[in-house]
Structure formats: structure tokens, C-alpha cells
User: What shape does this take?
Amino acid sequence: MSKKGLFITFEGSEACGKSTQIKILAERLSASGCDPLLIREPGGTAAGEAIRHLLQHAPEGDDLTPEAELLLFAASRAQLVREKILPALAAGRLVICDRFLDSTTVYQGVARHIPADETARINAFAAGGCLPDLTFLLDLDRKSSLVRMQASARKPDRIERESDEFFEAVRKGYLTLANNNPERIFLLDASRAPLEIASDIFEKVQIAVSLGL
Ligand code: Z5A
Assistant: This one.
């Protein structure tokens, strides 16, 4: 299936504002006549949502090893790519995904210490060559992230219950990734006001669309 559309992903640590920004971007795109496909990882397909439940909420997931966790994220991604993303891109649509393979590189690779070459190999197999054209990384410090999570009053899931050290590693991992992939990853200070961040994102997306990236 050849690719004609544009594939955009959002990344960052907990409560960095991905959902908020995706919602604003989708509204702005809709207002300009574009109908983006909005999806999330893990999840986005029937099988993927079941995997998401196991990874985040089901008691059966409590003792998952880092390796099993990595493969479950990869399984969800393999299904999502082939069932939803590739057909949408082939139809020329703009696809916006809340998290994608950079999350695996950082959470399972960096924070769970799975060797980078193994993580990269499994990511490549799952994504099958389907890579984002543009990635927005919303960078937020751990303290601000905790304040936002506490304010939301939502019960933390299995991964959100990890230590400060884990999330410091996640943040550092993301910043390294952005530094190594400046052509694809657009780093944003997520502590700013939502509409200010949204303007930067919309401007970058308009450029990407006009360049036919
Ligand atoms: N994971 C993994 O380990 N490996 C993988 O390969 C993949 C994922 C794909 C998925 O979690 C978990 O899976 C995630 C990584 C792991 N684990 N953790 N931890 P998820 O999808 O359920 O949740 P999340 O991705 O961590 O996002 P979230 O908690 O839903 O947050 P968000 O979408 O980034 O933020 P938000 O909902 O837009 O905003 C959070 C709150 O902050 C909310 O009250 C907003 O009103 C507020 N907010 C948003 N923006 C602002 C600004 N700019 N200022 C002030 N307040 C704001």
C-alpha cells in the first residue's frame, strides 16, 4: 500500500497535554476542511484496545516483565498500522496518533533498560516501515506533570504508578531522541498556555501540509 497522506504523532510524558493539543489541532483542521483520522496507542483497534486494558488496568498485567510489555505494545502497533494507519495514508488522509514507536524507545528502551538495538528491531518489525512524518514532543518537568495528574483526580494506571526516577529517565530519553532527530521531532515547552502551544503546532502542520511531506 503506497503512502500519500501525512502521519503526525504526539509524544511526551504523563499529562504533558497531548490529548488537549490533538483536540485543538483536529478542530482547527476540521475548520479548514480537513478530516484527520485520530487514533491512540496502545489501542485504536478492537485488538489494540484489549491489549491496552491488559497493559494499563487489568490485574493480570500487574506482573508483566519488561520484555512482555514491549511485545504487547508492539502487537498493538502492528495491528493499528495495518488495519488503520496504512489504509488512511493510502487514501491521502492526515493521520494523528497519540503516541507511537518513540514511546517504546523511551519507556521500554530507556526507562525499562531494554537494549536499544532490541527495541529498535521490534519497533521496526511492528511498524513495517510506517514512520511518522512529523512528531510533536511536549516536554514537561515531573513536578508539573504530577500537579496536573493530581488535579485531574483520575486513578493512576499501572505505568503511571512508576517512580520519579522512571519518569525522569523518560523525559531525558525523549530529549535525547529529539536532539538526534531534529528533522522529524519538534520540541515544545509544554508548560506554556494551551493556545500558545497550539499555535506553534498548527503553524508547523500547515507548513508540512503545504510541503506535502
Ligand atoms: N506506553 C509505553 O510505555 N510504551 C509504548 O510504546 C506506548 C505507550 C505507546 C499510555 O498512557 C501509557 O502507555 C503511557 C506510556 C505507555 N504511560 N504512562 N504513564 P495514556 O495514553 O493513558 O496516557 P498518557 O499518554 O500518559 O496521557 P494522558 O495522561 O492522557 O495525558 P495527556 O494526553 O498528555 O494530557 P491531557 O489529557 O491533554 O492533559 C492532562 C491534564 O493537564 C488535563 O487536566 C488538562 O486539562 C491539563 N493540561 C493540558 N495542557 C495544559 C497546559 N498547557 N497547561 C496546563 N494544564 C494543561
